Amino acid sequence: MKFLIVYSSRTGNTRQVAEALYAAAPDGSTISKVETAPAADGYDVIFVGYWMDRGTADEKSKEYLRTLTKKKVVLFETMGASPASEHAYTGFANAATCLSEGNTIMGVLAIQGAVDPALIAMMRKMPVGSAHNTGEMEKTTEEAAKHPDAADLEKAKAYMEAFTAKYEKYYGKK
Ligand SMILES: Cc1cc2nc3c(=O)[nH]c(=O)nc-3n(C[C@H](O)[C@H](O)[C@H](O)COP(=O)(O)O)c2cc1C
Question: What is the tens place of the pLDDT at every residue in 29-50?
Fold first, then answer.
């Protein structure tokens, strides 16, 4: 049983989550940046990690998702908004539309991640009260700046442990 963990990360949040997942993954698993991802064939499950870009996966991840066919896939995302928000769910749904034919989504994991200060500065220049320049945006990005924290990375490890146990139980022996 071996998993492939492929991630895309601009500022390191998604990389940290990918590394936490990998730390708890079964022996023989592989972690790779999306730019240098090995062939997915031969891996039991492909974990694809992206940073949320305007409500969906970032461009590099979208491109990678399009290459997958007939695979078991786990999507993990980092995002400025709360992982408990509807935005997190629609993010998974939007990312999933990029997959090619015949894949099965086996799991999802959302983790909050600090937003690039350059983007926050840009949003603050938008008209006050417009979609991206609100008190809500200030609160959300202030909270996001603390993530991923140690508890988030523990959550990722625990996710992988639970997933591996479940996978072994239901798919381990054929
Ligand atoms: C261009 C851009 C668009 C973004 N769009 C969203 C978004 O739609 N929703 C959201 O919650 N966060 C959004 N974010 C925040 C990132 O998804 C978040 O900071 C993520 O953790 C960055 O991951 P990374 O450090 O792996 O690059 C955006 C960030 C950038 C730079």
Answer: 999 999 999 999 999 999 999 9
Could you read off the pLDDT of 109-164 as tens digits, one per residue?
999 999 999 999 999 999 998 988 999 999 999 999 999 999 999 999 999 999 99
Q: Which domains does the chain have, with CATH numbers?
A: 3-113+148-171 (3.40.50.360), 115-147 (no CATH)
Q: Is 19 in the pocket of ligand 1 (CB under 6 A)?
A: no
Tell me if 115 CB under 6 Å of ligand 1.
yes
CB 20 within 8 A of CB 49: no
Residue 40 CA to ligand 1 center (angstroms) comes to 26
CB burial readout 145-160, b (16+ within 10 A) else e: eebbeeebbebbbebb
Looking from the CA of residue 52, the nearest atom of ligand 1 is 17
